[in-house]
């Protein structure tokens, strides 16, 4: 009974910490974005003295520069105080300290927190911190920490990892098409007389090819000749085909991870640690409870063969990934 109440207490504390962590992450990101808005900034008052032609001194008050409102500083202090406390506690309880320091999400969290303290010290020392402010954009990457509290985001990340080969192939074909169509549009616009030619070089055409193949179409650069228009139409069609080809594979992987996670969520918590992709097969050949026929050699239906193929392509990875996803106990898990 004591162990039962202890487990409930630990689970409740974990949920409270998760909610507080998500609150400070969202607050920090919103504060970081809002403090750049002109209405959220206040002018910096500076005294400027100049000497006129007749040798007299003039004094004026300049308000050209602005800085964020003071309230944003206190919000950042509170948020980074929590992040510092969280990093220290998580590092202290981490079983392997080196693995904790090598985790990408932890690296982002540590760098983002250190950038705040360095920015604060440089501001107090009256030194320029423009370059450091540029690197403080890494604070936006704190959104990656939400993956710890959302099973849906974890599924999405594992989907992209499982589809890495298809995504690399997509990028390869896009780069190949971009270079080819950039060269084609450059020479196509030079075949006919065109005083308003926007394509002065092939590197300039690369930008147009990227925008066209990704079906964005800003319209800042457009072909003027009939040959150039024909090349532009081919470029748009090629972009649609290249992007559409790997989509079914990505959707299939996402559906697989999602259905597996949904199945695990229906199990008791004590059994969520292990959920085999297929039933263990005895040395005889057929799976327990399976009758002959209906699925070809070795028994099993289409679903079993599909699971076998997935397990063959990603050996041992599915269960491990789903265990990581299933460990999400935050109330914001989906």
Account of the 3D structure:
The chain is mainly alpha-helical and 334 residues long. Among the domains are: 12-149, Voltage-gated potassium channels. Chain C (Four Helix Bundle (Hemerythrin (Met), subunit A), Up-down Bundle), CATH 1.20.120; 164-244, Helix Hairpins. 60% of the residues lie in helices and 5% in strands. It is built from 12 helices and 4 strands. The strands form 2 sheets. Strands 1-4 form a two-stranded antiparallel sheet. Strands 2-3 form a two-stranded antiparallel sheet. Helix 2 (70-93) packs across helix 4. It starts with a helix and ends in an 8-residue tail after the last helix.
Q: Point out poorly predicted stretches.
A: 274-279, 285-299, 329-334
Estimated helix fraction: 55-70%
**Order of strands across the biggest sheet?**
1-4
CATH superfamily of the domain at 12-149: Voltage-gated potassium channels. Chain C
Order of helices and strands: HEEEEHHHHHHHHHHH
Counting DSSP H or I runs of 4 or more residues, the number of helices is 12
> How much strand?
5-15%
């Amino acid at each position: 009974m004591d162990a039962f109440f202890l487990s409930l207490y630990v689970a409740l504390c974990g949920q409270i910490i998760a909610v507080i962590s998500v609150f400070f992450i969202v607050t920090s990101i919103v504060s970081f974005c809002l403090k750049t808005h002109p209405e959220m900034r206040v002018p910096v008052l500076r005294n400027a003295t100049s000497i006129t032609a007749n040798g007299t001194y003039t004094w004026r008050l300049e308000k050209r520069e602005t800085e964020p409102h003071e309230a944003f500083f206190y919000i950042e202090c509170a948020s980074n105080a929590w992040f510092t406390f969280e990093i220290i506690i998580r590092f202290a309880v981490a079983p392997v300290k080196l693995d904790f320091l090598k985790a990408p999400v932890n690296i982002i969290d540590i760098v983002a927190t250190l950038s705040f303290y360095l920015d604060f010290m440089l501001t107090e020392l009256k030194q320029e911190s423009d370059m450091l402010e540029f690197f403080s954009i890494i604070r936006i990457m704190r959104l990656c920490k939400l993956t710890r509290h959302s099973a849906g985001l974890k599924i999405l990340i594992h989907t992209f990892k499982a589809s890495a080969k298809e995504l690399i192939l997509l990028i390869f074909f896009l780069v190949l098409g971009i270079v080819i169509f950039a060269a084609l549009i450059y020479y196509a616009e030079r075949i006919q007389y065109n005083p308003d030619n926007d394509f002065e070089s092939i590197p300039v055409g690369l930008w147009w090819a990227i925008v066209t193949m990704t079906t964005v179409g800003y319209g800042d650069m457009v072909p003027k000749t009939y040959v150039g228009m024909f090349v532009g139409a081919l470029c748009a069609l090629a972009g649609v085909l290249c992007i559409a080809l790997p989509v079914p594979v990505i959707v299939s992987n996402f559906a697989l991870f999602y259905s597996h996670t949904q199945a695990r969520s229906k199990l008791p918590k004590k059994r969520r640690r292990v959920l085999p992709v297929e039933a263990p097969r005895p040395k005889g050949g057929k799976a327990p409870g399976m009758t002959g026929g209906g699925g070809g050699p070795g028994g099993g239906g289409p679903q079993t063969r599909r699971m076998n193929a997935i397990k063959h392509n990603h050996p041992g990875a599915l269960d491990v990934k789903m265990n990581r996803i299933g460990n999400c106990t935050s109330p914001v898990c989906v």
